[in-house]
Design a protein that fits this description.
The complex is a heterodimer of chains A (430) and B (306). With 430 residues, chain A is an alpha+beta fold. Chain A is 44% helix and 11% strand. In chain A, strands 2-1-3-8-4-9 form a 6-stranded mixed beta sheet. In chain A, strands 6-5-7 form a 3-stranded antiparallel beta sheet. In chain A, strand 1, helix 2 and strand 2 form a beta-alpha-beta unit. The longest helix of chain A has 17 residues. Chain A is globular, with a radius of gyration of 22 Å. Chain B has 306 residues and is mainly α. Chain B folds into 2 domains: 50 residues, no CATH class; 213 residues, MetI-like fold. The chains are: A alpha+beta (430), B mainly alpha (306).
């Protein structure tokens, strides 16, 4: 979800990190900086800085509470908390890294952490703290292990996934049952046809173009095992794009989806233009807040096929002066107790195995919001990271443009996929 | 283009009330008289351009006034709120220290506007009026920097500002914008449009360079100066990425960066964000309103002579 904000990060990453390498900043020798020098049992004391992403001011009380608890547990520590605004976070982090000023503990999603990990700017917390694999869910830990890099470069923090939301009024208008919505892509196509035919072409079901996640879901192998080449120009991928192109030609998709804006599908859904969107477990609240007339009309259901897994995590800077305290803080913020408390304020899900049995997540209190939360929590067990983190913002943009061209019928699916793979490989190698 | 307006020719026949307007033959209209159809077409085009330029702004304004119980996104955008409220504006001030951010933004804007007015007019005067070696090359260099997009240089700029010890200061935010290459070129053009003879007459009268700059140059380019001031102000006020990168201390955030706190990670209220945007917009209106008298003069200035 948030990671789609990454536009243009690749070019900047290269520029920033090359600069950092030149020693323009007061950077120390970065070779083998990613290996920890202290173990998890070292004395925890002293000052440590902690950077979060867009948690102020809504979660100020929560974060300050956690910090206070940390300082109380480890006397002699002092945490400086920085919160960065939502927009431009990727560029902010890169400029911090290139100036050698990365905070000790940084909130980084896996795709933001990758360019830093490649430059040995993040600590391999897996080596410092072997218990990571035991205490955190597998998908979360794997998100911070990259093909071609050895180590785990972050503690998984909170998780989210997408579930489906359906507009019950629109379903009823064309005689479909929102209680029994489509479960696979093919059922969705069939329902889109009904929606189109029965409403005289005025109503739409589908609201977005396929992305890399959909290709993964269709059984396409996106990346080779060594992580060096993209392999998604297969006949299966072609077949999927052909289906979308046919649906677009038949008028099952609204015309304005070709631009593929971030969160475009949920906007169309809120505008009452389409009957389907995907969104996190907390999206229902947003729909109703934006358009109160949607209240009671939205029905959630599990995502089609395999749900996507979105991971946030806390990484430790390789250049931190206080490794022991930084590791302790990252571990403390992401422990089961603190994550559960966080998840109770907002619909996110803990990445700790111990939280799986918490009845708060598995029992609904009957409200649609609560239903959505339980659905999302159940989906998490099956959820997988569908888009490899090596796909940078620029690569993703290019792939999406090619897909747009194919769907609108300007090029064939094969041409689009071949062009996308060629460009993506080139960007990956650079 | 010399025959466009001839004041001697009767421009339009005032319509006498009660009598039918004299019938005019088709196809004999001059530049200043319009057939009714053409008039309609022109107005339609004007209204169309008006809608696409101020439409998004009006939508934002109406969103900020919409009550929590009403839909924001509708198929056909609705501009008149059905439950109008000003509460979101109060809420913005409660959520973030909007006045502090505004003061920071103002400090940056004042530095940038001051820097541009002084620096660009000095540089523009030197390039257009003084003879020195490499003048053409210097002018070419100014032009060349216009080609570079800001994003390319932003990281190296940050590293430079940090080495100067100005990271996390408002002065560091303002510094790179304090002389804009485009503004130098605008001033260069404005000074050039002043006849050289005037300058030469001043030289004969014994005026030195500074006297010519202050008493002859500056008074004749006030219009362009106000253009530079307005553009520099808007540029400094609206910049987001650069202050975000330079500043780390939330107390020093400028308004654009601070407004980001309105849109949180997990949920945000578009009404609140719209209200914040409207608040940020007010100072630009004030600056433009005070300088607009000169502004339009300045826009014409560069084009008339040359």
């Amino acid at each position: 979800m948030r990671s789609r904000r990454l536009t243009g990060v690749a070019a900047l990453a290269v520029a920033a990190l090359t600069l950092a390498g030149c020693g323009l900043g007061s950077s120390d020798d970065t070779s083998s900086g990613s290996k920890p020098t202290v173990d998890a049992n070292a004395q925890v004391t002293g000052e440590v800085s902690f950077q979060t992403w867009a948690l102020k001011p809504k979660f100020t009380t929560y974060v300050e509470g956690v910090i206070k608890a940390f300082e109380a547990k480890y006397p002699g520590t002092k945490v400086t908390w920085l919160d960065q605004p939502g927009d431009g976070y990727d560029k902010k982090v890169l400029s911090q890294a290139s100036a050698g000023q990365l905070p000790d503990v940084v909130n980084l999603p896996p795709d933001f952490a990758l360019p830093l990990a490649k430059q040995s700017m993040l600590l391999d917390v897996g080596a410092a703290d072997p218990k990571i694999a035991e205490e955190y869910v597998e998908g979360g830990v794997q998100a911070y292990q990259y093909q071609g890099q050895t180590g785990t470069f972050g503690y998984p923090w909170y998780l989210n996934t997408d579930i489906d939301y359906w507009n019950a009024t629109k379903f009823a208008a064309v005689g479909l049952d929102a209680k029994n919505p489509p479960k696979t892509f093919d059922e969705l196509l069939a329902a889109a046809k009904v929606m189109h035919d029965k409403s005289g072409g005025k109503e739409y079901m589908m609201s977005r173009l396929p992305g890399i996640g959909d290709l993964t879901n269709a059984g396409v192998k996106v990346l080779s095992d060594d992580g060096k080449t993209f392999t998604f120009n297969t006949p299966e991928a072609e077949a999927l794009l052909d289906k979308y192109a046919a649906a677009y030609k038949a008028g099952y998709l609204p015309r304005d989806i070709l631009t593929q804006q971030y969160l475009g599908n949920s906007k169309l859904f809120t505008q009452n233009k389409v009957a389907w969107t995907t969104g996190g477990g907390n999206a229902l609240g947003d729909f109703v807040k934006d358009n109160p007339s949607l209240k009671g009309k939205v029905v959630p259901s599990p995502a089609l096929d395999t749900p996507p897994l979105y991971v946030q995590g806390l990484s430790v800077s390789a250049k931190t002066k206080n490794q022991a305290a930084a590791i302790a803080l990252a571990r403390f913020v992401t422990n089961a107790e603190n994550q559960a408390a966080f998840a109770k304020i907002v619909n996110i899900f803990p990445s700790t195995k111990a939280s799986a049995t918490d009845p708060y997540f598995s029992k609904s209190d009957g409200t649609p919001e609560s239903d959505a939360k339980v659905l999302a929590f159940e989906s998490l067990a099956k959820a997988k990271v569908l888009q490899p983190p090596v796909i940078s913002g620029a690569t993703n943009d290019f792939i999406n443009q090619q897909i747009s061209l194919a769907i609108s019928g300007k090029v064939t699916s094969k041409q689009a996929l071949d062009a996308a793979v060629a460009k993506a490989n080139q960007l990956l190698a650079s | 283009m010399t025959v466009v307006t001839d004041p001697a020719r009767p421009v339009a026949v005032p319509e006498a009330s009660g009598t039918a307007p004299p019938r005019r033959k088709r196809g004999t209209f001059g530049f200043n008289s319009l057939s009714p159809t053409e008039k309609v077409v022109r107005y339609l085009l004007l209204v169309f351009v008006l809608l696409i330029t101020i439409g998004p702004f009006l939508w934002q304004l109406s969103t900020s006034l919409k009550g929590s119980g009403e839909d924001i996104y509708t198929r056909i955008p609705r501009l008149l709120p059905s439950q109008p409220t000003l509460s979101h504006y109060g809420e913005v001030a409660d959520t973030i220290p909007v006045w502090d951010y505004m003061r920071n933004s103002l400090q940056v804007a004042v530095l940038v506007v001051g820097g541009n007015i002084i620096g660009s007019s000095l540089a523009g005067f030197a390039l257009s009026r003084l003879e020195f070696r490499f003048r053409r090359i210097v002018l070419g260099l100014f032009l060349a920097t216009l080609v570079l997009p800001g994003e390319v240089t932003i990281i190296s700029q940050y590293v430079t500002v940090r080495e100067l010890g100005l990271a996390n200061t408002l002065f560091g935010v303002a510094l790179p914008g304090m002389i804009g290459a485009l503004n130098v070129l605008l001033m260069y053009n404005a000074f050039r449009s002043l006849p050289v003879e005037v300058d030469q007459a001043a030289v004969v009268d014994g005026a030195n360079v500074w006297q010519r700059f202050i008493h002859i140059g500056l008074p004749s380019v006030r219009g362009t100066l106000s253009v530079v001031a307005i553009f520099a102000f808007i540029g400094a006020w609206d910049d987001f990425l650069w202050p975000l990168i330079v500043l780390t201390d939330p107390d020093k955030y400028t308004l654009t960066v601070g407004l980001q706190y309105l849109s949180g990670t997990f949920s945000n209220d578009p009404r609140l964000i719209a209200a914040g945007t409207m608040i940020a917009f007010i100072p630009i209106v004030i600056v433009f309103a005070t300088l607009q008298r000169f502004f339009f003069k300045g826009v014409e200035e560069g084009a008339v002579k040359g």
